[in-house]
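Predict structure. Input: DEHA2E08118p, 354 residues.
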Amino acid sequence: MPVTSEELFLINVRTYQPPNISCPSHSIWHKVPVARRSAVFVLLFLGNMGELRVILTKRSSKLRSFPGHISLPGGKADSGLETEWQVARREMEEEIGLEANNEKLMKHYGFKIDHLNLLPCYLSRTFSAVKPCIGFMNLSSEHEQELFGNLKLNLNPDESSSIFSCPLKDFLYPSTKSPSRECIKRQFFKIEWGGIPWNLRSYTFAHENEHEIHWLREVSDTSMSSEEEPEDNPSMKEKAKSMPKRDLSTWGRLGTRRDSDTDQKINDVWGLTANILHDLAQIIYCQPTVYKNKTFGEEELINSVFTQGNLMQEKERSEEEVKLIHSKTINEEFGFNSILPKDEFLRLKEIYRH
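Output follows.
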């Protein structure tokens, strides 16, 4: 790899210790019901110029939750015996076909995926505790061609419709105003959810990327969903006309669409995925003094709503959770202040203000 390789920065995520202030010994992930436990795999690897890149997928429009969004490979736990790593690796294999067993990867392709660290839980819009598992795909130059020739990443059309990668450093904004490597538009807004400060980030990348690693270019893009219009294939256009249309707008902006200003086809990484990648970029590239007052994830919030608000206790969402899903500001009829003691609500507001 070039001397510009960012691999040395990985020591920062290896040594990162989540504070878990309210849960000093165990993450709240292990306390919520199995149906509320989710894990995503943040798979890092070195790009052509030695930059750290992250693998992302576009969720199938067939999925019930977050259809058409850009996401990290992952999903829900099958049983209470699965660890976060096991959930994330199993789901990644199901979605993109990357073997979950490191021994098999080493035997067949000469590399393994290093497990670097876990980040604190993030709270999804559907009230699941999402645990990011950070891994590194250690591809030395001598094995890269072997990987390209032998490893076949196969997208599960019921789960994912495309796969691509982005430079992790591009997700540092707004922590840094430095020019991005590949991101063409970066946005950040501080909003509120149920009275709690919330980060809304968006990073858009060109759908066609000349910097994409060659072994990802070989994976077929199966994006032929109700929100996309086929451009060049007449037979596919006819097929699209007969497809049932779904209104995916209720889940927010689509992951792949055309830019309203340039009409360029883009991938929009936003929401929970964008927040996870921004936080990870801070941990990897910034000194702890930069983020010393910031709480990564929503471990504190999940712990509070579970232990003091009696939410996330059952498999099915409660009436209070449904109300909170649609809540935005403290001025609304129902917010986190409606289910938490006042002093705890104010404590959480202060934590997430930074």
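The mean pLDDT is 85.
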